[in-house]
Amino acid sequence: MACYKPGQRSRLIYAIREYRGRKDEPKGLGWRDFRDLIVRARIQLGGPIVLVWDNVRLHRTAGMREFIDANAEWLTVFQLPTHAPDLNPPRASGRWSSGTSATSPRPTSARSPAP
Question: Whose CB has fewer CB within 10 Å in the chain, the N or C terminal residue?
Answer without folding.
Answer: C
